[in-house]
Amino acid sequence: MSTYHPLTENEAIEIARSLTSVLPNAETLHCREIGDGNLNLVFHITDPNSGRSLIMKQALPYAKVVGESWPLTLDRARIESESLIIEGKLAPELVPQVYKYDPELALTIMEDLSDHVIMRRGLIEGGRYPRFAEDISTFLAQTLFFTSDLGMNQQEKKLRVRDFINPELCKITEDLIFDDPYTVSANNSYDAAIEDEAEELRTDGELHLEVALLREKFLTQAQALLHGDLHTGSIFITPESTKVIDPEFAYFGPMGFDIGAVLANLLLNYASRDGWHASDSEAADYREYLITTIRDIWTQFEAKFLKLWDEHGIDRIASAAPGYKELYMKRLLQDTIGFAGAKMVRRIVGLAHVADIDRIEDAAVRERAQRTALAIGKSLIKLNRRAESIEQLIDAAVTASSAVKA
Amino acid sequence: MSTYHPLTENEAIEIARSLTSVLPNAETLHCREIGDGNLNLVFHITDPNSGRSLIMKQALPYAKVVGESWPLTLDRARIESESLIIEGKLAPELVPQVYKYDPELALTIMEDLSDHVIMRRGLIEGGRYPRFAEDISTFLAQTLFFTSDLGMNQQEKKLRVRDFINPELCKITEDLIFDDPYTVSANNSYDAAIEDEAEELRTDGELHLEVALLREKFLTQAQALLHGDLHTGSIFITPESTKVIDPEFAYFGPMGFDIGAVLANLLLNYASRDGWHASDSEAADYREYLITTIRDIWTQFEAKFLKLWDEHGIDRIASAAPGYKELYMKRLLQDTIGFAGAKMVRRIVGLAHVADIDRIEDAAVRERAQRTALAIGKSLIKLNRRAESIEQLIDAAVTASSAVKA
């Protein structure tokens, strides 16, 4: 069983049986493959006697998206398991525990989180998560600070940069987020009703300049170890618990890309409630909940990051230079806002959409949500280098949203 | 002879004898060790019959600077030989040809350039090099463009970033250039006469902010494969030929660091002529020659880099976004100016000085040259983020120089 092949359910059970520390005295184990089969096999293995369980995630040597299939490195399983281990040390309780990683099989065996729900689904259903801002700001502050030149030995960091060189998965982001939506590309996918919007994205020079600058940062700035794909589909949640999963896009990049991903996906849900529930005070309440969450995430992140810097900063001149911290945090906010905008745009016209919006059945309502998301996204991209405060992101969202409704 | 040990002259001859394509039919070979013994052994091997020759450079497992010795990775020999090979492909005739690299012995066998002189020495002696601006601007444009995300496949570039992770040699730069000169450090070394200047460097908050930002770029911005130590002691020259040597500090960093290193070392020579030859019209002429060279290097570099971008740019949105090229070149000039300033400051108060200034015997004259170099360096560092044109660097140099003389 040591050379790579996609596992059968029986093989998965045999491997699980050897993990006696997780599944002690297991007699009969049940196995169910619960992945969508596009990128990975995911086996859910349970011991009905003890109630114990685990997840086995095996990378497949290809990606399937919208019917197409292309080869994809199995090395992403290594990157995912190594990231989870680093994140688990820096942000205990906020990622699934890794029990074992088998490089030959591209297999990660980890904690079963099936008592949680995928946050995107939770938000669509109107769930509220009072711990989320606290937890995700802790996750971001801890993982980003302690893998940056501010918080970790700068020579060790360079060796980590080397370990997390991730060309194939970075290319997916470079194409799908920082190129395709702004040109004619076979990868794009959008409703015919918003062809005018797609055309505008292809011809807006001001937008292209900002996207080129954001793309350059993504390509060159090895600031910290990112999750790399931190949308609400990569978060398992309950009102009491937050778990970040699936860091296979991890690499050393600009911190704002991770923070922006979280905010963008909250804003996509915000956009999905525009028009749809226009007459619904519950929807207005929920929008307010999302805005409050966004504000809390940035505010708490900033406070935690600065506290870590004060207490654990290892770069003498970065800690001592007057004005440097303030400038650093301002640039980080600006990056966050720019990347959030780019993440929103691509979810409307690019290859991969979000269920928050795609699931809206009424075409006119869906179209309005799409236009709202694009209006917010474009305005954040254009704002980014001028931004001074998280309130500007919130204003931009509210303003763009109102403009579409009017 | 396959495990590492410092070679004797006889062992060097034996190895050279095996390179029959370079030294065909060699009977007697002569060998002389011509290195300074601080970092490397350098064997100059000649065949008196044919007149042919070569250089064998072997890394030593330590560095000796000012009497101190510390361990230093032999991997720098790999980085040096791989860099020379890449540079040789991108800028033919502008680096020594590599005949062979032996990883076990940390040994690079290469073209003998002893018909050239070290450029620092040439400048000190008042030499003029009419090809230099042309050659070094070609070297910089070719090596920086074609190893950046603008000019090379962006996935291959990431693998190259991995190959050139160079923690130990980067740390030397991070400490000696971007930290020590601005604090009390045992690594610093300067004449007691300029204690007031050293004190000011330790307390100038505006300067510290700019140095922290430059340091951050050096730590995080994987823009292109740099030479990493491109001062005039790393250039062999004649009026007809320019050869860049010693890229053991190579890594993927901000382009402006290499360009700034060249300009800084021309400006250090410029500073060395202040006061010393004040009544000497030859010195004034030579200063004018240096300024013209600086202007030509930037102007020609910019034109060549933009031409490469037009003809070979591989990044769609970076090539198409209106205003991006202009902004890119402006930021590159700003980085160049900032790094040039940082390189000058450290050569006056830091660990490693330059002969251009240290060789001045008259203490008062030397002190004035040191103050001039510091005044130029500080003014470039403070200018960097506001700069729009290379003329501002030149003005800053002339103005700072006049202020010290007055």
UniProtKB/TrEMBL annotation, chains A, B:
One of its GO terms (molecular function) is ATP binding. InterPro entries: Aminoglycoside_PTrfase (IPR002575), Kinase-like_dom_sf (IPR011009), Methylthioribose_kinase (IPR009212). Gene3D superfamilies: 3.90.1200.10, Phosphorylase Kinase, domain 1. This is Methylthioribose kinase. Catalyzes the phosphorylation of methylthioribose into methylthioribose-1-phosphate. GO terms for biological process: L-methionine salvage from methylthioadenosine. It catalyses: 5-(methylsulfanyl)-D-ribose + ATP = 5-(methylsulfanyl)-alpha-D-ribose 1-phosphate + ADP + H(+). NCBIfam families: MTRK. Belongs to the methylthioribose kinase family. Its EC number is 2.7.1.100. The keyword ATP-binding applies. Homodimer. Pathway: Amino-acid biosynthesis; L-methionine biosynthesis via salvage pathway; S-methyl-5-thio-alpha-D-ribose 1-phosphate from S-methyl-5'-thioadenosine (hydrolase route): step 2/2.
